[in-house]
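Re: the pair you flagged

First of the two:
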Amino acid sequence: MHTLKQQWFGNIRADILAGIVAGFALIPEALAFAFILGVDPRVALYASFVIAVVISFVGGRTGLISGATGAMALVLVSLMANHGLQYVLAATILTGFIQLILGVFGVSNLMRFIPNSVILGFLNALGIMIFMTQMPYLLGASGMTYIFAIVTLILLYTIPRFFTAIPATVIAIVVMTGIALISGVKLQTVGDMGTMPNTLPVFFLPDIPLNFETLKIILPYALALSIVGLLESLLTSQVLDEMTDTPSDKNREARGQGIANFITGFFGGMAGCALIGQSIINVKSGGRGRLSTLTAGVFLMILILLLGDIVIKIPMPVLAGVMIMISFTTFNWGSFKFLKQAPKSESLVMVATVVIILYTHNLAIGVVVGVILSALLFVAKVSRVTVTQDKGEYKVKGPLFFASTTKFIKSFDHVSENMISINFENSQLWDESAVGAVLKVKQQLEKKGVTVHINGLNSSSEQLYKQLT
């Protein structure tokens, strides 16, 4: 009870102020992500509101802000284009259910198996994909469209150097929208993309047939959304842990993200996850408790309901500029240094992850393939076993397991002594394949009349050897 009270009311003033700032910062990105997905702005705004409110109660990392995100929008683009909004909402509900199950079974424990090279590839591919999604709205557009996008980028780059009290995205959007309204220049606006919400979201069931065909359509997207959403959320949670020097419950965060997505699908919102930019803004503004996350979600909806008529006048080139800046900050520019300094295998994994994601347009596939490739390269690296001969004693060096048994067996093809010993002081038997390889060598040599002694096994290797012989 004390912990719960501390999480909610231990930092009231700072949490409310930080939540207001984070709420401001949610608007431009929610609109921009709706822009990516090609849906009515309400879909992203309702998602950010519902997810932020729900995660404030059930999340495992206090101060973390969740909502509609570019990563999730990118996964949903083809589903929206081919099947429409109702299937997007159904996929969101299924995503929440899958994430909840993964959280129950301790999915956060699997994070340690994702190498840094894969994470870098994921972030870089995400940055590139966000950038690429803006190109159709800029290429071939009018000269003023380019001017507004470029000036927005300049403001987003320069403002934080001199002023940080209010997010640069909010200032840039207000300034550029004001210029557009005063000058009367004709540009595509948010209002052209759809209507703004004028009521709170209401509960409804997605209008889709409940059959196996529907499941076949939405399940691949839901699985991809689950992996991408949890990856981004758990990474964001880890960043906040380090920033605040406080721990968090990663499995509870996974369950919380699932509950939030499950609920938001019934209220007309798209799937979402943690927003690293808004979360950092919240924490740097003093937000530490659950109240800051709740305030961000509630304040977002208050702003939309009261100022919706102004929000619809925001020029789309300005939002494109915001998304391009997000793509720049998402891309890890230190990756070029990483490619020069890191082992070739890790560089290969990072590049492969990026290429696969860009080719498939699926962030989850890239991560899974990247992890598998990294594991294969690691196995290849550690499977280097050597056998040296010294007066009838064959010394084995290196781990003996399924990937190194072939070389181990071949090392005894030309034994000429009548009696030998195989020394495992500098080796380890890891699996049944290793024991099988030792027995095979022993049997083949004994058929040739060679006496074989096995020695130097450590306790775990000896236990495995006796268990399987």
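Second of the two:
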Amino acid sequence: MTEVAEKVGSVSQSRYEQIVAELRDVVEQQARGQFTIGDRALEIEPMRQRGGPMAEPEWTVEASLKRLADDIGLSVATVKTTRWVASRWPKEHRSPKTASYTVHRALANIEDEAERFAAIGTPPDGKARWTTDDASRRVGQQVETPITPQEKVTAIHSLARDEEVAAAVTTDFLKRPQVAAKVSAEDKVRVVEEFTRDESVAATAATSLLRRPDVAFKAMSDDTARFQVNHAQVERSRQAREDFDRTSPVAPAVRAIDRSVEFLDLVTACHSFVAAAGRTVPGLRDRTLNGDERTIVHENVARVRATLDWIETAVDTGKVDVDDELARLLKGE
């Protein structure tokens, strides 16, 4: 039985090798051509030291290279690049037979001259020639075919530079349970914070989360969160009352009822205090409080006395403002 000859694409292995040999000659010619352009651009405008009296006059260099680019039909950016690459690779250190011009251009980013010249002749282990990805990897640039996780992350970042693309990708990723499970708790918190910078989004998210009993319980265990919720409830009630007072036709009648209720509440509070004191004070018979206990009782008596004065003023004048001293007493300061 005849074995089927190995093929690469639509051609046989032997034909593929012929094509590779032919195209390597083309690539070598292209490299020589690119270096020739760079050498001639260097001849017209040699690289000069930046800064100081021998600094390169950028405006004259730009004009000369722009004229050269126009005359040979290339972009000025291409001419500048070939000039720079040629300056990094003196003729005796070029290797167009074993490395493409693209590889030379990538490895030209190696700052140390000796290291750069040595690198061109030492491809990665197990390889006879440099590939463009190997060269990019060697100098820390983005590769065309990412292999390592970090290279793939870099590629994703590059593709997601557009805000809409980044948003769509992030949404898709976070829908994958396996991905979400690998994100740390701290990172998840940061993601949620970023997504809820918009007030309306934050309000919707908080409402949904607080409907979950376990979440609500843990959230209310935080003193600041509990204070903010209580404050929000009070503020919401105040705003609702103000809106009612402004818009409801029965508001005056309700306010009259409120005054009666407040009167009853005040009388009830006074009665409760007197009754509580009547039950508690007799228990002090034949008992001597220590110094700290007496101090605490005297401080509270002072607060009660100040509160009673405040009540009398409010009842007699209708003024319920609290001065700084009374405010401090009521707060226990």
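The chain is about 70% helix and 0% strand.

-B.
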